[in-house]
Write a structure and sequence with these properties.
This protein has 15 helices and 14 strands. It is an alpha/beta fold. The relative contact order is 0.08.
């Protein structure tokens, strides 16, 4: 008897058709936007079988694309056995419903926002990350609920005996109420976590440790940079949204100063507003930082557009006024002419390769310099019974000179303003080296 043929248990990727509209107000070239949409689809496990682009002055209100293009895509769905059609722009609930009707069941119709939300749902690991994604997904889903149980409403509208009681709400109303309640519960849980995060952030602030946040377009190499700076092994992969949850590492600079560096979720063009709102508590790590490193993939032809996208989201979360340095990463993979153009457009930037280590010494020096610019030089005599104070000077400041005397430790150090205030009672007024460090312009 022949042995049965072995069958793979690996999940079969969904077959996807991508659709975009090229209109005059588009910020990105349509070809680049569609290429990014394809990467998003592949990240979510889909197999792209076709791509369609239509040039329009403005989207069609009923179906987003023209009726002829709808028919063309419907034929392609049947010919290519597609499971899902993904639009590059956000669809209104009615547009999505009309397109699903035109393309026929069981083909799904989703937009870029839904695709990104699905990727976030697959990649979230911590409780806070999962709650934030669930909230964004429900806020996206709520206006798109449709009357799948409309037969219940139909029975109520026929009239007659028994039609005025018994069934109460329609299933659609029940679903909406359940989602509203779930949204309120998620917001409550996230508020609790935000308070806890705020307490932790306040403790870090009061500790005097200099805080650096990494912000940038997805796949710009932030996790690789964090690993290079800290010597850690944070998960890093050449994939969109490989990491979502913030990761913090302590780093000791060459001068002996200890700083904290936090890697945050990557940004992307057309990032759903619901996600930005939901992740505000996570992105608060950027807002409360002393310095933001805006990491840019210098090898990407859309590097400037990606940087503009990052700046826009930083404005949305109120972090645009935090001191920042542009870091041109992946210089080893960039064309020299493109790299030179980026450096000219971003004066004062740091050019590095987190993968090869090129430029890393210059970047760490720049971080130390930015920290020093906001500090004061003090000369104090710290009593020997104040060992914790000396420990804080060594951990958060830069010791310039230190000696041991009968009354305590005589030290000249560069420290932050908060620690300088604590040390005032031990100040040596006759020391000519104490004074203000240069301040930011």
């Amino acid at each position: 008897m022949p042995r049965p043929e072995a069958r793979s248990t690996a999940p079969v990727p969904e077959r996807a058709i991508l659709v975009g509209v090229d209109h005059p107000r588009q910020e990105w070239p349509i070809a680049e936007s569609m290429a990014e949409l394809e990467r998003l689809a592949c990240t979510d496990g889909a197999e792209v079988v076709a791509t369609y682009v239509q040039r329009l002055d403005h989207p069609v209100p009923k179906t987003f694309i023209g009726s002829g293009k709808v028919e063309e895509i419907a034929a392609a769905v049947r010919r290519l056995d597609a499971d899902v059609v993904i639009f590059d722009d956000e669809l209104t609930p009615s547009q999505q419903s009309n397109l699903e009707g035109a393309l026929g069941e069981p083909t799904k119709v989703i937009d870029r926002c839904a695709l990104i939300l699905d990727i976030f749902g697959n990649h979230a690991r911590t409780r806070a990350g999962r709650l934030q994604v669930q909230l964004a997904q429900l806020q996206y889903l709520y206006p798109r609920l449709r009357g799948m149980w409309s037969h219940l409403v139909g029975e109520q509208t026929r009239g007659g005996i028994g039609s005025r009681f018994g069934q109460g709400e329609s299933q659609l109303e029940v679903d909406r109420r359940l989602i509203r309640n779930k949204i309120h519960a998620l917001k409550r849980d996230l508020k609790t976590l935000a308070v806890r995060r705020e307490v932790q952030g306040k403790a870090r602030h009061e500790s005097g440790v200099w805080r650096v946040a990494l912000a940038g377009y997805t796949n710009a190499g932030k996790s690789t940079l964090l690993n290079a700076l800290s010597g850690s092994d944070v998960y890093a992969k050449d994939e969109l949204f490989a990491t979502l949850d913030p990761t913090t590492r302590m780093v000791e600079l060459d001068e002996g100063r200890r700083i904290v560096i936090t890697d945050t979720v990557g940004f992307i063009q057309k990032l759903p507003t619901t996600l930005v709102e939901s992740f505000k508590s996570t992105l608060a790590e950027i807002r409360s930082a002393d310095l933001v490193l805006k990491v840019v993939d210098a090898s990407d032809k859309n590097a400037e557009a990606q940087l503009a996208c990052v700046d826009d989201i930083l404005r949305q979360i109120g972090a645009h006024e935090v001191a920042s340095v542009v870091v041109l990463n992946k210089s080893d993979a960039a064309q020299p002419s493109d790299l030179a153009a980026l450096e000219a457009a971003n004066p004062g930037c740091e050019t590095i390769s987190a993968l090869t280590g090129a430029g890393m010494s210059s970047l760490t020096w720049r971080i130390a310099h930015e920290a020093s610019e906001r500090e004061r030089v003090v000369s104090v005599l710290v009593p020997y019974d104040k060992g914790s104070l000396m420990n804080e000077i060594h951990q958060t400041g830069q010791v310039l000179r230190e000696s041991y005397e009968q009354g305590g430790t005589r030290v000249t150090a560069r420290v932050n303003a908060r620690l300088a205030a604590h040390l005032e009672r031990y100040a040596l007024a006759d020391d000519s080296e104490a004074g203000e460090a240069p301040q930011d312009a």
